[in-house]
Amino acid sequence: MFKKVLVCTDLSQASNALVSCAGDLKSLGVEEVVLANIRPIIALPKPGVNAADKSFVEKNPTLMEQLLVFQGAGIKAITVSTTGIPARKINQLAEKHQVSAIVIGSHGKGIYEKAALGSISSEVISLSKKPVFLVRLNTDEDGNKVELACKSSFNHVLYLTDFSETAEKALKYLESIVEKTKCPVTIVHINELDRFKRYILESTREISYEMLDGIETSWNVETKAKLDGIKARLEKAGSHNVQIKIPTGRPIEIILDMIQNNKEYSLVVMGSQGKGFVKELFLGSLSLQVSRYSPIPVLLIPAKYNE
């Protein structure tokens, strides 16, 4: 699943940390890395000057050092340096090189400085047909001290589902991760039953409380069956610790509280789009909020993803 990945670098100290983090993905079966450096178009190149100047790669020591990190880890790696609109270029390169995932930092200096605030990483997520592995990189004001949030990313995975087709794609991807790592998983489904009952009351003139009780019973039985099915699949994939949680409340607050109150969680896996009654769960709002504010890495599987 992770045999070939595209790693985004802006040659900063933060991206050096990102490179070392991406190297740890070897445990998941990473065999090839495309190390991509995209320089934003500030002005049109002079006539006769190639925007994707190969000599830039050859003469840039930081890029070459990052390349050697992967090669030293036994991973085949190539560098690509070009100019363009970063998010679009990243996705174009991901398609061109047929990678299985994009690895990008959520904070850094240079062109990725405001990635977590929506300028680049959010656009990459919106455009990508590939899974996006978003790594939290916390730097000081000078960009010198980097706190890496991807260490042991697969210690305990938090999987979010609304039972949509996109959540199913994320689950299949997670199964492949579990097969490799045997990691513990906590399955989270936001309980929106009260909201659904209010919707029924507001849209239907004649409905009894007995009918509402029947809806609630049916909802609970169906939800439990689906979650038990997901648990069984993850256990079959190799996880010996699968938990189920059905919290009630505002989704983003619930997820962030869970992450902050349980230091065991090391990675969030979710779809970046979805559908169903709680369509906003994955339809941009929650996925972008989690990727923006989560203190731990986030792996987003897009609705457009095809294996």
Short description:
With 307 residues, the chain is of the alpha/beta class.
Overview of the structural elements:
The chain has 307 residues and is α/β, with parallel strands linked by helices. It folds into two domains: 145 residues, HUPs (Rossmann fold, 3-Layer(aba) Sandwich), CATH 3.40.50; 145 residues, Rossmann fold, CATH 3.40.50. It has ten helices and twelve strands. The strands form two sheets. A ten-stranded mixed β-sheet has the order 3-2-1-4-5-12-11-8-9-10, with helices on both faces. Helix 4 crosses helix 5, helix 6 packs parallel to helix 8 and helix 9 packs parallel to helix 10. The longest helix is centred in the C-terminal third of the chain and has 29 residues. About 7% of the residues have low confidence.
Supply the CATH superfamily name of the largest domain.
Answer: HUPs
Distance between the termini: 9 Å
CATH architecture of the largest domain: 3-Layer(aba) Sandwich
Which structural class should the secondary elements be placed in?
alpha/beta
Query: What is the radius of gyration?
Result: 21 Å
Number of strand segments: 12
H/E element string? EHEHHEHEHEEEEHEHHEHEHE
Number of H/I helices: 10
Helix content: 40-55%
Share of residues in strands: 15-25%
Sheet with most strands: strand arrangement? 3-2-1-4-5-12-11-8-9-10
- CATH topology of the largest domain: the name is Rossmann fold
Main sheet, how many strands, which sense, barrel?
Answer: 10 strands, mixed
Mean pLDDT: 79
Number of domains: 2
CATH class identity of the largest domain:
Alpha Beta
Poorly predicted ranges (pLDDT <50, ≥5 residues)? 108-118, 274-283
Overall geometry: elongated
